[in-house]
Design a protein that fits this description.
Order of helices and strands: HH
Radius of gyration: 17 Å
Distance between the termini: 33 Å
Oligomer: single chain
Largest sheet: none
Helix content: over 70%
């Protein structure tokens, strides 16, 4: 219940691609194009943003609001 179904799915896709990259096999990953690599980078950025950055910024906003009153 910590992350949404969409984020869970994204994390699994990142993990699967990482596993292929870490363990050589005839999977065609030597033919990954720039667009595919950029997409995976973007997925990773969105995942990290949702899990770490947004909660941190939300906590900062909450603290500022509480300290004003």
């Amino acid at each position: 219940g910590f992350i949404t179904e969409n984020l869970r799915s994204t994390a699994h896709e990142i993990r699967h691609l990482g596993n292929y990259g870490a363990h050589f096999q005839s999977d065609g990953l030597d033919e990954v194009n720039y667009s595919e690599a950029r997409e995976m980078r973007d997925f990773t950025g969105h995942l990290l943003n949702e899990l770490y950055i947004i909660p941190h910024k939300t906590a900062e906003m909450r603290d500022k609001r509480k300290n004003k009153g």
